[in-house]
Specification:
CATH class: Alpha Beta
Shape: globular
CATH architecture: 2-Layer Sandwich
Pfam families: Fer4_15 (PF13459)
Number of strands: 4
Order of helices and strands: EHEEHE
Organism: Catenulispora pinistramenti
Strand content: 15-25%
Number of helices: 2
Number of domains: 1
CATH topology: Alpha-Beta Plaits
Radius of gyration: 11 Å
Protein name: Ferredoxin
Length: 71
């Protein structure tokens, strides 16, 4: 079932778990970039509606289970 576009999703990182693999930035470059050590830098904006599928994929494919989505 499609997710309602009225729900705002934001990217988040569990910093104690993140190991700087960069998979989140590969899958969601419009919201996540990487610093010089490979750790994510999150944009201060919601995940665009057209990127929500990739955002959920980034959550499931994070090797450290550190990438999250919050309402």
């Amino acid at each position: 079932m499609p997710e309602p576009t009225t729900i705002t999703l934001r990217a988040a990182v569990d910093w104690t778990a993140c190991q700087g693999h960069g998979a989140c930035a590969d899958l969601l470059p419009e919201v996540v970039s990487l610093d010089e050590w490979g750790y994510p830098i999150l944009q201060e904006r919601p995940v665009p509606a057209e990127a929500r599928r990739r955002a959920r994929r980034a959550v499931s494919e994070c090797p450290a289970l550190a990438f999250l989505l919050k309402r």
